[in-house]
């Protein structure tokens, strides 16, 4: 059973203690945060640094398909793309993972066997998370049993926004317990806050700490299913949270912005944020991921431009 | 009106994706009239502006090529209406750019507007002229229909800053292509003003994108761009045209070669089309009847075979 980092065991003793702890976190200077994120976005990354950033970004992608229309064939096609993103250039790195719904996890596992590309499965009644706890846990159990390496869960935003932090905390603990496999290892747990529904930066900071206290391996911005998804500002805020958490507990936690990151330029801006906020330790696909689908094609087109000198076009990457 | 009123200079900007951005590079260059007097600063586009323009043109292609020919004709006619309303401005800009008298410039602008109307009329007629039903030796309907090539890079003529410009843009978009236009390097102002007209004429953003600057600097990345389907080299000199044609071969772009240059007739590429009319001094004569070759230069023919049924059994007389 995962336990809270000892430094904060008092904070999770009761609902009121948890609320006191979360509301005791320093308030976020929204203007300063956005200005900092914007100024880091102006860094010029060119030539070899750009080539490195593009390859790093490709290797950090959780290539995602979360549609009602997903079929086993589509998942297999996506898996093939994750293994060989650009079939014309085998030096292209593989993506970190393929992210699917739980019922497609087994298909993805079979398609990716031996490739080193992980299978992430969303669970807990994604994307709304509006289901009974038993249903959510069964969802997670199914995904883990199907062989998913990583579980992307959504928090109960209704409980969070109404101040029932301990309920959210205990739910994450319960999901974390379901991530255990028979052989004693754990699927890595990504906790999605759906920052677009949390309304304030203060709430995002509180959710980040709540998730980390509950034993999340990754904190993730959003589902990609609402109007506002990952932004430089909310990702910067979460990067600060994981940096501070490691400084205080020694435990490193990953960050995954998801949704709305479509261009190479955006991806490189996020990498600058990671490097300047959390530090180089996070510049690795074990600690930082992009939840994206169309981003990969843009990165591949940029990569082709760098290697051939010609601007590429959407006819030269796969349609997905 | 007071005499010491401050002058209000116009900031000319690019026209890309229905918006008026400055050059991404932040550069501008001085535009002078035919006598060397400073007129205005024009944005000096970089290859990134060219790339952005291609993205905008590609995005607009689906909607524009999918619009009915009739609708395209209406929109192009609307452009002509807007041009008519801003005639005075174009007369002034053309007179400055080409060193023409006011009356000669007015004649050029009239001809340009008439040319636009003429091409507007062609949108729903070109299909019948170059497509049709083909007789084949079998029980099939066999129909050929022209379809737009895609994103077309257009190097507008260097000398004829407005009539020539209209004569190369209108046929490209009339048939459903979208265009990235490189304006005349020395006289870009009429082209940049045309952008303002297009923005207010129901023409969807991105169908025409207008860039000003050094022709070779903008054209080179466009010629090798994998997402550009065709290039019209009208505004290129012989040496540049050759270089661009080589770059364009890489993704099998359609190439429309420039008219034979007066300066280097021996080096000039042969005009592939049945020639735009060429003046006695060797430059293109934009006042001549343009014919349909610019309309057909950027069309692809799709042919469909459709079985008519078991001819022998039914006794049909198809």
Automatic annotation (TrEMBL), chain A:
<dbReference type="GO" id="GO:0004139">
    <property type="term" value="F:deoxyribose-phosphate aldolase activity"/>
</dbReference>
<dbReference type="GO" id="GO:0009264">
    <property type="term" value="P:deoxyribonucleotide catabolic process"/>
</dbReference>
<comment type="pathway">
    <text>Carbohydrate degradation; 2-deoxy-D-ribose 1-phosphate degradation; D-glyceraldehyde 3-phosphate and acetaldehyde from 2-deoxy-alpha-D-ribose 1-phosphate: step 2/2.</text>
</comment>
<comment type="similarity">
    <text>Belongs to the DeoC/FbaB aldolase family. DeoC type 2 subfamily.</text>
</comment>
<keyword id="KW-0456">Lyase</keyword>
<dbReference type="InterPro" id="IPR013785">
    <property type="entry name" value="Aldolase_TIM"/>
</dbReference>
<keyword id="KW-0704">Schiff base</keyword>
<dbReference type="Pfam" id="PF01791">
    <property type="entry name" value="DeoC"/>
</dbReference>
<dbReference type="InterPro" id="IPR002915">
    <property type="entry name" value="DeoC/FbaB/LacD_aldolase"/>
</dbReference>
<dbReference type="InterPro" id="IPR011343">
    <property type="entry name" value="DeoC"/>
</dbReference>
<dbReference type="GO" id="GO:0005737">
    <property type="term" value="C:cytoplasm"/>
</dbReference>
<dbReference type="GO" id="GO:0016052">
    <property type="term" value="P:carbohydrate catabolic process"/>
</dbReference>
<protein>
    <recommendedName>
        <fullName>Deoxyribose-phosphate aldolase</fullName>
        <ecNumber>4.1.2.4</ecNumber>
    </recommendedName>
</protein>
From TrEMBL, chain B:
<dbReference type="InterPro" id="IPR015590">
    <property type="entry name" value="Aldehyde_DH_dom"/>
</dbReference>
<dbReference type="GO" id="GO:0016491">
    <property type="term" value="F:oxidoreductase activity"/>
</dbReference>
<dbReference type="InterPro" id="IPR016161">
    <property type="entry name" value="Ald_DH/histidinol_DH"/>
</dbReference>
<keyword id="KW-0560">Oxidoreductase</keyword>
<feature type="region of interest" description="Disordered">
    <location>
        <begin position="260"/>
        <end position="289"/>
    </location>
</feature>
<feature type="domain" description="Aldehyde dehydrogenase">
    <location>
        <begin position="24"/>
        <end position="255"/>
    </location>
</feature>
<dbReference type="Pfam" id="PF00171">
    <property type="entry name" value="Aldedh"/>
</dbReference>
<protein>
    <submittedName>
        <fullName>Aldehyde dehydrogenase family protein</fullName>
    </submittedName>
</protein>
<dbReference type="InterPro" id="IPR016162">
    <property type="entry name" value="Ald_DH_N"/>
</dbReference>
